[in-house]
Amino acid sequence: MTEPFPGARPTLEAVAALAGVSRATASRVVNGGAGVRQPLVEKVQRAVEELGYVPNHAARTLVTRRTGAVAVIIAEPEIRIFSDPFFSQQIRGISKELTAHDYQLVLLLLEGPGDYDRIARYLAGGHVDGALAFSLHTDDPIPDITRRAGMPTVYGGRPGWTTVPDHRAVPYVDADNRGGAREAVRYLWDLGRRRIAHIAGPRDQTSATDRLDGYRDVLLGENPALIAEGAFTEESGALAMTELLERCPDLDAVFAANDLMASGALRVLKERGIAVPDEVALVGFDDMDSVAAVTDPPLTTVQQDIEGQGRLMARLLLRGLDREREGEGERAPASVITPTTLVRRASA
After folding, report:
1. Where are the alpha helices (DSSP H) in the chain?
2. pLDDT tens for residues 277-305?
3. Whole-prediction pTM
4. H-assigned helices in 52-108
């Protein structure tokens, strides 16, 4: 590659001159615009490569009204985000899809109530083209913040918040939480277990309430004493398991609403000398390799495609941005519910 202008950053004008086209034509090619004949596109591309031209991001943003960045907002404390493998898998899926389309991921963390104002200012400032938000709780202000900022947004998880009118119409990606829970509990029932307990997730998140509903679908008229609430963490699963054993020492199976809580429950059962699965069968939800496959015994669990859901979230958002750029209106993309599968291992 030659350097016609050593020491200086190549300009769009230099690209146009070398390609023998107008500056406007060179700009359309560099910025991905349509309406340029293929021979001219190839001339501009050769000039870009020869000169080592890198588009000026600020100028490109003014022309295209695009930043090439997407915000990822996770409504959980930082310590949980970096300790729960669910979030790393979902972020990995998002990152892969954004990278494939030359978009930058901007991670916005929420540590406390004061962070909502900071995020609202950032989104309203036009620093990103859209947002992906997940792990929201019932009263989370993020949906209202993105709406007020006019920010195209796709959510991870079925909407359950009440802060935004017509919240059920927003695009989202989720697993079949209720169906997966039904399959898990029905499997335990078919094994002959009749005192099936449930370690539920936080009731202010739809994934937890959907899995609780799936549990109830199978065990009509269930005993409330067989349900304890956790917080999707290993320690909360251990505490819930301790509570359940105190209330119902004769339980013979447990369905935990995620693998981390199932791992905590398994630890308590082993400490009490309760054999798994002979005395108590145990089933989780998620099928995270870093948890389910390394427990002793390995965990029977409901598999959801966490990384794939991240990719789908990003894909839906980018499709919506493409439609908007092409003047096809602001119609929200259709939501997606991904299937689940029961993975049988040694715990049940």
Report:
1. 12-19, 23-30, 38-51, 57-64, 78-81, 85-100, 115-124, 142-148, 177-190, 206-218, 234-247, 259-271, 289-292, 306-325
2. 999 999 999 999 889 989 999 999 999 99
3. 0.80
4. 57-64, 78-81, 85-100
